[in-house]
Amino acid sequence: MNATRNIWLLVFGLVCLTAGIFWKNLPAASVESLVEDAASRQLNRPVAVKVDLKNEIDGWVFVCGVVTEPDGSDLKIESEGSEAAYESDNFCALAKVQGKQELFEFDFGSTDMPAMDWLERYDLSTDILTAGEG
Description:
Blueprint: H1 2-24, H2 31-43, E1 48-57, E2 60-68, E3 79-80, E4 83-84, E5 90-96, E6 102-108, H3 115-121, H4 127-130
Antiparallel strand pairs: 1-2, 2-5, 3-4, 5-6
């Protein structure tokens, strides 16, 4: 009886160890996935994103692009009365990617540049807006 219990404890321990290793090695969500999730929540339906600009400095990632339909086609923006619910299909986002990836800011549909406020709020250099370009 004692030997059977020890075998079961060993099997249970190995299963837990294997599950722990698997869980630890799961890839972190990409910044693009975080942005897609935020856009999908805001629009209350599945969408995809096409990233046109992605810059990383000191563990922060700044991305901009357009929100699309899941198949990559242009986003069909539902209108409310005579005005569109959003002014454009553009987005910008700011994420922290050191350790756990987390979306700190997300803006969809604006025609202004909210990133300037984000730089001040998180004490970031303007270099993140242009790093890696041209």
